[in-house]
Amino acid sequence: PTGNEELFVRKFNTLFAQKQYFEAAKVAATSPESVLRTPNTIQQFKQVQFPPDQESPLLQYFDIILESSQLNEYEILELCKFVVAHAKINVIEEWLQEEKVNFCSLPVV
């Protein structure tokens, strides 16, 4: 990673360690060259325990990306796994209607 990318990685790691997941998600989602938009980052968010009455940090991460960009193939797959596991199909429906996610680019498995 370049110097700028390293700054993003360090800031993300610091915020994540401090349990500032929303801020960490913003850093990851806006990282240059998508340096933090990786399976490893998603795994970190998936491992966070959160109260049932709060939004998942992983869902916040996806939401932040979708505010200004689109999800990559891995992110789309992980988002689908999450919403199915947590019975949040309405989230996918909403994002499809808003044309924030597109399943046409996914490989058939």
Return the structural class: mainly alpha
End-to-end Cα distance, whole Å, is 32 Å
The fraction of residues in strands falls at under 5%
Tell me the series of helices and strands, N- to C-terminal: HHHHHH
Poorly predicted ranges (pLDDT <50, ≥5 residues)?
A: none
- Quick one: how many beta strands? 0
Major β-sheet annotation: none
Number of helices: 6
Proportion in helices: 55-70%
Question: Could you describe the 3D structure shown?
Answer:
The chain is mostly helical and 109 residues long. It contains six helices and no strands. It has helices spanning 3-17, 21-29, 39-46, 57-68, 73-85, 89-97.
Layout of strands and helices, then pairs:
Elements: H1 3-17, H2 21-29, H3 39-46, H4 57-68, H5 73-85, H6 89-97
Helix pairs in contact: 1-2, 2-4, 5-6
Descriptive labels:
single chain, 109 residues, mainly alpha, 61% helix
Q: Could you write a compact summary of the structure shown?
A:
The chain is an all-alpha fold. The chain has helices at 3-17, 21-29, 39-46, 57-68, 73-85, 89-97.
